Amino acid sequence: MWCGRVALRRLQRIAVAPLNSLSITGGLPGAVQREMSSLPRVYITRQIPPEGLKILSESGQVQFDLWDSDDVPVPRKELLQKVKGVDALVCVLTEKIDAELLDAAGPNLRVLSTMSVGFDHLSLEELKKSILLQLCVCVGIRVGYTPDVLTDSVAELTVALLLSTSRRLIEATHEAKTGGWGTWRTLWLCGYELANSTVGILGLGRIGVAIAERLKPFKVKKFIYTDVAPRPELASLIDAEYVSMDELASQSDFLTVCCALTPETKDICNKDLFSKMKNTSIFINTSRGGVVHQEDLYEALSSGQIAGAGLDVTVPEPLPISHPLFTLNNCVILPHIASASYSTRNAMSALAANNLLLGLKGQPMIKELKL
């Protein structure tokens, strides 16, 4: 475990460090007087955190344009216009990278760097097609992404969301602010504690392990997990037992979802899963909204089939304020902030920038998605 933490810290340092070795200028004053028109063109779909922009600016390797806002995503029409002829693209999870966009970009596009660990916004099939079409002239589009550097922040937020939901902190805050705080009552706002509980993890990876590590000091009795196959190496780190999906549902006092969104996991948390859970169970999702069938979750929460749910992700995002889930006191909804710490978001943007520069040089990316 110590080795794993050291490796993660090293990756975070590498992600933030500028890739000076990539600079043709060698960092010499005045060497960036090269004709800008000869540099690879990059479009950045969002005002990414400063570490990433700094790396790209100081590299002397690219010329870039960006959608200079962090509040509003780039309009699709403008995005399709801006990507025409670019050599590389930095995107975030709000942009759909599909056939339409790849066609608009044209054959120059060879590197795609997403500032995210999830890649459900990327049409992998279309990217694979582009590789096949370009095999005769180049290696096709390479894709960089940003896993691992956000493990700690996502795990921390998951624990915070779990405790807020299970101990009804949002409800309690509302009562205190709106005059509901009367005399002390024996069962008012009672919730569920972690001590002697069974915690289930759907999709055991680095984040699932990190969540369990943080929950263990709360005297959790047992960790269980399910995945596409047993993961004994990771499971041994937290002494977790592999179980079936049905067993995960029926045994878990707290069920936290950590799996990626894929065609196989879409709506995997549905009526069938919720019907097998205890009526005292707490359901937590900090992965992707698409893994949950939200109408089924609403029914499970409103009927008392499960005790509560904490969601950092929904479909769509943002979730309309008129959505029925917002009417439930036993559902805590956050605006997709699991990785929202200053250090993590800067590390993600830096890793995305370094992935892009390495990809343009034809060198191995720090974190590359194998298509």
TrEMBL record:
Domain D-isomer specific 2-hydroxyacid dehydrogenase catalytic: 42-368
PROSITE patterns with a match to the protein in the record: D_2_HYDROXYACID_DH_1
GO cellular component term, pick one: cytosol
UniProt keyword Zinc, yes or no: no
Gene3D superfamilies: NAD(P)-binding Rossmann-like Domain
Domain of life: Eukaryota
GO MF entry, a single one: hydroxypyruvate reductase (NADH) activity
Keywords: Oxidoreductase
Domain D-isomer specific 2-hydroxyacid dehydrogenase NAD-binding: 159-338
TM region positions: none
Database matches in PANTHER family: 2-HYDROXYACID DEHYDROGENASE-RELATED, GLYOXYLATE REDUCTASE_HYDROXYPYRUVATE REDUCTASE B
Family membership: Belongs to the D-isomer specific 2-hydroxyacid dehydrogenase family.
Listed name of the protein: Glyoxylate reductase/hydroxypyruvate reductase
